[in-house]
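Next up, a specimen:

>
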Amino acid sequence: MARARKAQIDLSSTPYYHLIARCVRRAFLCGDDKYSGKNLDHRRTWLVERIKQLSEVFAIEIAAYAIMSNHYHLVVKVNRRQALDWSGDEVISRWYQLYNGSPVIDGYLRGEPLSDASRELVVELIEKWRARLYDISWFMKNLNEYIAKEANKEDNCTGKYWEGRYKSQALLDETGLLSCMAYVDLNPIRAEMANTLEGSDFTSIQARIKHFQYTDIVKEESKLNGEEHQTALSKWLKPFGGRVHEYALPFSLLDYLELVDWTGRHVHPKKKGYIPKETPNILALLNIEEIIWLDRIQNYAKRYANFVGSQSVLKAHAAKNDVSWYKGVG
């Protein structure tokens, strides 16, 4: 039985979520469609550009993404506090970038005199739009509807393009977040679509590596630090910064790249992994054993369902929701 969306997305428990959307039947999001004979790789660009645009409008930040042949993965953080801090005019400005407005809001923006009832309606609409602008369901609806319309127009057809419901997983702690991000970034490696992280097209790990390489060159010229460049070059991707930076992911970029590269050498079906003398820094920091980590990444889809995290956190969250057990415990 499907779990109610409100039971899966609970911002009081975590702001981080893993989202997956799949095409219906044999429809292809991108890549070579064996049934139509077409190459649809350009649709990956549609998706990345739309995600980028929406992340700049919604109070929803992108931590990781991977676009596969008939589905895509997103790891997001809902920044509710940011949305609550927006002025009413900023909420309107953001909403109007995506949707038609309201006559009463148009009048308000023109500075027309409003009745008491109209002023109340303005406040009501602003608060409704504010709530939607940090709502994952509204984000996904906008993203999927846009891609579906473009794809159907290109295919000269109508009808359903996506499965009726996107899948969401709540990432309850740093272990869950780290596991999910690595799992998402390594999707092309596991699927044998790429042999290296740099060659993993249309993934966040590839984008971060390119930005990091470019940063290294520009850093010498401008003498700015790496974190400043990381923010400037990949503004729409949530930056790494470690635990000292509240706005950033709770790991360093170099530690994350090291971990994903190390893990990728083990999970690639045709590559022989190597065991370095030292455990990757992040695993040591989080006190995660190498063998447990690799099992978690290789069997991620089988191990977890709606919630991801350490066993202790999963147990505590299950108890909080009056549930005896969550998949991933034991």
Q: What stands out?
A: The two ends are 22 Å apart (CA to CA). The chain has two domains: 12-82+135-320, 87-132.
